[in-house]
Predict the 3D structure of the following.
Amino acid sequence: MIEKPEYHHHEEFRNRSRKLEEIKEMGIDPYPAKYEPKQLIDAVLKQYDKEELADSHAAAEGTTPLTSVVGRLVLFRAMGKNIFAQLQEGNARIQVMFNRELTKVVGLDPNGEETALKFLEKKCDLGDFLGVEGHLFRTQRGELTLYAKDVQLLCKTLLPLPEKHAGLIDKELRYRKRWLDLLSNPPVYNTFLQRSQLLAGIRRYFLQHRFMEVETPTLQNCYGGASAKPFTTTLNALDKQEMFLRISLEIPLKQLIVGGMDRIFEMGKVFRNEGIDKNHNPEFTMLEAYASYWDYNDMMSFVEKLFETLAMELYNTTQIAHTLSDGSEVIVDVKAPWIRMTMIDSIKHYGKLDVDTMTTEAIADYICKECSVDPKEVRKKARGNLISMLFEEIVEPHLIQPHHIIDHPIETTPLCKPHRDPEARKKGLVERFESYILNHEICNSYTELNDPVLQRELLEDQARKKEEGDEEANPLDEEFIEAICQGLPPTAGIGIGIDRLVMILTNSTSIRDVLYFPVMKPQS
C-alpha cells in the first residue's frame, strides 16, 4: 500500500478537497481544458497606466474598456455587496471587483441556492486560478480595477500558498520548492526573467557576428576538454557500454570546425562530478564558441563587447551595482576595454612576487608556508601548476573589476597553442586567457592548438596521469586526434559559464539563486 504524504492530513488540504467535491456536485468543471484571455495582466497595466478611466458605475453599465485576464487569486476581501480581490499572473497583479448583482460564475446555475458572490466567497481559496472578463475602471484612489462580469474557475488548488507577510524565507526550502519561491518573492521571479533575457541576448549577439548555433551530444563515448571527473552511465542498447555525460563542449565543436563550419557556438548543460558550493553546481550551463582564423586577442575583444552589450540591453548602462560577500557595495563597470595582465605579471602586481626569479622549490615553499593547502599535494605539482595555484591564492581575491589574465603555463592547458613569442614559449606559456569579475572566473579562452603531433603528446600525457590515478585527467581520444590530423585551421575558442554570467549581471551571490532547481541533498 502506498502511504499518503503528510499534507493529506492537514486541515487546509481536507477543507479544499471537500470544496472540490462540492464544486463538482454543482456541475462546474474545476479543471477546464482552456481559457483564452484577451490580454495578459502585465499588458493591461502597461496599456492603461496613464489613461484616464471612468468609475465603477460606468464599468457596471459596460461603457469602459472590455477585457479578460487570467491569474491566481492572491488577495480576497469582502466588502458588502462587492468583493475586492487581486489576481497575479507572473510578476504582475491587478485588482478585480466582484459584484453581487452583475458578476456571474461560468457553470453556476443562476436559479440555484448559491449566488456568484457566495460561490466565490465559500468555494474559492487563495491560490485558485480564475479567468475574469469585465470592464476596466479606476477607484476613487485611482487604482486600475477590473469590474468582473463573467468569472470562470480554471484550477482549484488543494494546498495553500506561503503566508503573505511571512513569505518563504528558508533558503533551502526556496531552492527545493522553486515554484513557491517564485510566487512568494517577486525579486526572484525578476532574476529568472532577466536570466531568460540574457540568454536571448547572448544568442542574438553571436548570431549577429555570423556564428551558427549547433548542438552536440550530451552522452559521449569518451570525455574531454576540461579537468574534471565525469558522471558515468551504461547504454543497454550497446551491451551495457560505459558512457559519460559531457564535461565540456569542446571536442565535438572543434571537429565541426575541421568540417568547415568556421564560426559556431553551443549553449547547453555540462556535468562535472565535483563539489557543490556557492559558485559550483554539478550540472551547469556552458557556452562554447569557436572562430576560425581568430586568435585569443580577437576573442578578448569579442567577450568584452558581449558583456558590454548585455549590460546595456538589461540596464542601459555598463555600470552594475553588486553586493560583496562582506555586505559592502561595489560598482562593476563592464565597459570595454578590460584590464589585461599576464598571470606572472598579476602575481607580481598583486602578490609582490616575481616568480621568474624563483626556483620551482622556492615557489612550492612559499605556497606551503603562506597558503592553506596540503604540502604533500604541493610537492607533486609541476612548476606551471604551482604558478597557477599561487595565482588562485593571492591574485583572485583582488579581481573585482573585469580582468583578462593572459598567458598561462602549458601544464594547465593541454589543448592550447604554445605562445608565439619565443621568450614566452621558452617559459612554457600558452596563448590562453581567463576573464574574472568579482573574483569569479567567467570565461576561459585559447588560441587553439592545431599541431597534431604536439596535441598527441599532450593528450598522451593526460592519459598517463589518468592511469596513475588522476580522476580529473582525460582519456586519450583517438577520434579527436584523427580529426586534428585532417586539419584544424587557426582558431580561437572560448567557454563562458552562463550561470556565473547571470550571477554577475543580476547581483546574485550564489549560483543557486540563478538555477531554477539546483542540486540538493535528498530529504529523508
Remarks:
- The chain has a mean pLDDT of 93.
